[in-house]
Amino acid sequence: MWRDDARRGARVLRRYVPSRPERPRDTVPTPGSLPPHRTPTIPRYEAPTGRPPYRCGILADMVWEVGLIDVTPGGEDDFVDAYRKARSLLAETPGCRSVRMTRGVESPSRFVLLVEWDSVEAHEQNFRATDRFTAWRGHIGPYFAAPPRIEHFTDLD
């Protein structure tokens, strides 16, 4: 379709504009109003076996284990090495989703352990009540200035 274009001063130009069906600007396209290759789709999350589905971008029914660990001053680097060697004992435990250790900026001998679990029971039964925990504590325990404070948390949303 050819349209007159008078935006270029007094001289009128003609330009080719491909025709397309007009759609009111304030409407949202529905799946039937677009060609099949342009149909909007929302990918469906398929949870791996044994894991709960996503809820609003987070995994539903998961639990955070938060451990506040104070290390004997001067033994921080040895503690980090021991943690790196023993991390797989924790990370490969059934029901464990992720493991992360953070170090304090203002207090370099303070560490925070963050572990995602399927449930509190997964932590207690699959890790704490097994030889994995004994081996884990054997690696990192000698560097503790005091027993770590461990608590479990869940997401609010």
Automatic annotation (TrEMBL):
PROSITE patterns: ABM (PS51725). It comes from the Bacteria. Pfam families: ABM. Residues 63-153 form the ABM domain. Residues 13-49 are annotated as: Disordered. This is ABM domain-containing protein. It comes from Actinocatenispora rupis.
